[in-house]
TrEMBL record:
Residues 310-723 form the Glycosyl hydrolase family 95 catalytic domain. This is Glycoside hydrolase family 95 protein. Residues 725-818 form the Alpha fucosidase A-like C-terminal domain. InterPro entries: 6-hairpin_glycosidase_sf, AFCA-like_C, Alpha-L-fucosidase, GH95_cat, GH95_N_dom, Glyco_hydro_b.
Length: 821
């Protein structure tokens, strides 16, 4: 049951001349090609589907704006609006069956192990909860069946999306943004002739038809006379979990001229000079265990806080907040005539027409998506960021931790958006709650564990079935990303804060690892294990009826998948370093170091490829979308062209077999993998395929057909890897530069060691750079040309450490100017 409060205020204080000069601008600059094609998305037609709409967001409140005339739709989301309520999926006593499951796996009976796992170790309920669509704002305009001069655009420099057109001799403009300072979505409608704006606004709740009976609505709109409308509602019940989230949403109208009234569920504006609509909402969500928040009081506060503020003040504050993050990084690549076309046309032409700067736009759009869907204090970006119009979204639009959630945050550190990882860090901390219960009850282990999925309620047990649920390293993978935040910031206070999380994950695997019995090398392996989401082709593996999922499928259950071993190699190594940095737990750290030495190292199979499993199994799906076995090359740091050269040809054979295609996230991952292999042209070829096959017109990625933001954000990270890498302890400039990017500028990008870097290049060579040292210490740099370094006018001595790498000492807070000789 939802109610929407629409408060109506008439403001007549604007001077018409001031209004028109400030609010009405023509997009002539677009036609004149006088704009930056690296930061502007624009189109000549409205969105015909949700997947073509333009997103705005403040981390908590999101909207997809269609840009239609006659009847506009603005689809709305709140990041805390999920089905269900606080619940647990922990199943007690499963650890008693673990030895039997391991025995079946080691003795070649994977189906028996699969069935036992499904009966005794699967979490209950088997599925998790769903991210929900909140509402739609429908704006109906009179006399707009036909328009001319139509344009819509999203300006990444401001975070504002706009639409402009002319109807019956009047030019109309709408702009929409989501404000962090004022926690509102603002919709501003103006015209170039007074008294020209007439519209009807309606907030519509969303029914979940598959999870409710027709007679049981989850939302309600109540008229409240001339005071407006209030939309209230509750989340859906699902999988036996009662929907405990309640929300309230309101729409406030501030008009200049004309009349405003409420008629039933409609807000009607007639003959106004301009009107601003403010959308606010709140839920009763406090945290994953507490849903006692006063959502009505929150909404009242949001409205009170904007009362008396001008639209200009609200807009300026929102833009200032947004730009404090977005303006940190610029990427300029060569522009061509194709760069100035509408964005959907640029994408269509990209495979045949040169347009290097489209990569700049994709890079910055990814940063925009992260800024819009992950802010301190919000929920982390989920599979669709914060944008979802479906009550039963693909894969529940939750947190899938066998690649997707991790990929969402790959560009955070290098993209100079480090503080936007706060929601992810908080979620991982919260996951240790049920994660420690699962470790104890289902594995008989210390520490904490998370599998391949979680939701807003932070459940941690295996879900969906053993084919997916035996991925025990989801939490470990997330923990390695928490460590990465330390590498970029060198913040010891932060390291102390996350140390218990890091140690708890290590403790679980120190208890869970078992000795591999099928050789005499005394290897340690995870068991059960899986390589997402690829079934092996080997003895005992065949189609069978899975009683958990009620479908015929292959099992993926195994011992010691390669991704498990690589993640744990990183995790254990990270922990050992953290222990030394903080000077604690030396005895336990020594045990971890000994266990790390016994983890199965990367293996080369009889076909010459890197093995995906400890056993030399064949590939059941040679073109599988996941490339889990290559985690150790990217984002991990186990495989390296420089440190493990014998593994590079086996890695390339895997990539050749998997091909350049796949879902959006697959292609983004492959771009970074090829960048780590120093092949920029190959990475660029995959990028072209991504834009051609797995990208929507507004640059959201597809997962074959549904929208997911992981590929969008993964592409941003991959473009960085092509232009700068720092995982080897060296700031490596232009490591995988494609031929088409002959010149450019990349300013504000961040490197491990807490270094902010600017660099320019021409004719594929660095001409100058600046390194800003945020923490001081040694800086190693590979510019691939002879360089000189100055700080405050003084030449800095350089140490040649081999392979073209130079090293110099830095002081905290100083800038180091680098010039090619």
């Amino acid at each position: 049951m939802k109610r929407v409060a629409i408060s109506i205020f008439l403001i007549l204080s604007y001077s018409l001349n001031s209004l028109y000069s400030q609010d009405i601008i023509t997009p002539a600059a677009i036609d004149q090609k006088n704009f930056d094609p690296s930061t502007l998305l624009w189109y000549k037609t409205p969105a015909s589907a949700w997947e073509e709409a333009l997103p705005v967001g403040n981390g908590r409140l999101g909207a997809m704006v269609f840009g239609k005339y006659a009847e506009e739709r603005i689809q709305l989301n709140d990041d805390t609006y999920w089905s269900g309520g606080p619940y647990s999926t922990v199943v007690k006593g499963g650890y008693k069956k673990l030895p039997e499951i391991q025995k079946d796996i080691f003795e070649g009976r994977p189906l028996d192990a699969h069935k036992l796992f499904g009966r005794y170790l699967m979490g209950y309920p088997v599925e998790q909860q769903k991210y929900q669509s909140l509402a739609n704002l429908i704006l109906s305009f009179k006399n707009e069946k036909e328009v001319s001069g139509y344009k819509r655009w999203l300006d990444l420099n401001t975070g504002i999306t706009s639409v402009q057109y002319t109807a019956h001799g009047v030019t109309y403009k709408r702009e929409v943004f989501s404000s962090v300072p004022d926690q509102t979505i603002a919709i501003r409608i103006t015209a170039d002739k007074p008294g020209s704006i007439s519209l009807t606004a309606e907030l519509r709740g969303v029914r979940n038809s598959s999870m409710s009976n027709y007679a049981t609505d989850y939302f309600r709109m109540d008229g409240v006379g001339n005071d407006g409308l209030v939309l209230t509602g509750k989340s859906a019940d699902y999988m036996g979990i009662e929907g405990k989230l309640r929300y309230e949403a309101r729409l406030k109208a501030v008009a200049d001229g004309g009349t405003v009234k409420v008629d039933g569920v409609d807000l009607i504006v007639e003959n106004a000079n301009a009107v601003t609509l403010y959308f606010v909402d709140a839920t009763n969500f406090v945290n994953y265990r507490d849903v006692t928040g006063d959502y009505h009081a929150k909404v009242e506060k949001y409205l009170k806080d904007i009362e008396g503020k001008s639209y200009k003040n609200i807009k300026d504050a929102a833009v200032e907040d947004y730009q404090s993050l977005f303006n940190r990084v610029t990427l300029a690549l060569p522009a061509t005539k194709n760069s100035f076309l509408p964005t959907d046309e640029r994408i269509k032409n990209f495979s045949t027409e040169s347009d290097p700067q489209l990569a700049s736009l994709c890079y910055q759009f990814g940063r925009y998506v992260l800024i819009s869907s992950s802010r301190p204090g919000t929920q982390p970006a989920n599979l669709q960021g914060i944008w979802n119009d479906n009550m039963n979204p693909p894969w529940d639009s939750k947190y899938t931790t066998n690649i997707n959630t991790e990929m969402n945050y790959w560009p955070a550190e290098t993209g100079n958006l480090s503080e936007l990882t706060e929601p992810l860090v908080k979620m991982v901390k919260e996951l240790t709650d049920q994660g420690s219960q699962v470790a104890k009850e289902e594995y008989g282990a210390r520490g904490w564990v998370l599998h391949q999925n979680t939701d807003i309620w932070r459940v941690a047990a295996p879900m969906d079935g053993p084919t997916w649920g035996t991925f025990t390293v989801g939490g470990a993978w997330l923990t390695t990303q928490l460590w990465e935040h330390y590498l970029f910031t060198l913040d010891k206070n932060y390291l102390r804060d996350i140390y218990p999380v890091l140690k708890g994950s290590v403790e679980f695997f120190m208890d869970f690892l078992v000795e591999y019995p099928n050789n005499n090398k005394k290897w340690l392996v995870t068991c059960p294990s899986t390589s997402p989401e690829n079934p092996p082709k080997g003895p005992g593996y065949r189609y069978f009826f899975d009683e958990v999922t009620a479908m015929y499928y292959f099992t993926t259950i195994c011992a010691g998948s390669s991704i498990d071993m690589q993640i744990l190699t990183d995790l254990f190594g990270d922990y050992i370093k953290a222990s030394k940095i903080l000077g604690i737990d030396h005895e336990f750290s020594d045990k971890v170091e000994k266990a790390r030495a016994r983890l199965v190292p990367p293996q080369i199979g009889s076909n010459g490829m890197l093995q995906e499993w400890t056993e030399d199994f064949d590939q059941l799906e040679p073109k599988h979308r996941h490339i889990s076995l290559l985690y150790g090359l990217y984002p991990g740091n186990v495989i390296s062209v420089k440190r493990t050269p014998s593994l590079i040809e086996p890695v390339k054979k895997v990539l050749e077999e998997r091909g350049d295609e796949g879902a959006g996230f697959s292609r983004a991952w492959k771009m970074s993998i090829w960048a780590r292999l120093y092949d920029g042209n190959k990475a660029y070829k995959i990028f072209k395929g991504y834009l051609d096959k797995q990208c929507f017109p507004q640059l959201f990625a597809k997962c074959f057909t549904p929208m997911q933001v992981d590929g969008t954000l993964g592409v941003t990270a991959a473009i960085t890897e092509m232009l700068m890498q720092s995982h080897e302890g060296v700031i490596d400039l232009l490591p995988a530069l494609p031929d088409e990017w002959s010149e450019g500028k990349f300013h504000g990008v961040f490197a491990r060691g807490a270094f902010e870097v600017n660099f320019d290049w021409k004719e594929h060579k660095i001409i100058k750079a600046v390194v800003y040292s945020k923490q001081g210490g040694s800086c190693k740099l590979d510019a691939k040309v002879p360089i000189v370094v100055f700080c405050n006018g003084q030449k800095i001595p350089l140490k040649n450490v081999g392979n073209g790498v130079v090293e110099f000492l830095t002081k905290k807070g100083e800038h180091y100017n680098i010039n090619a000789k």
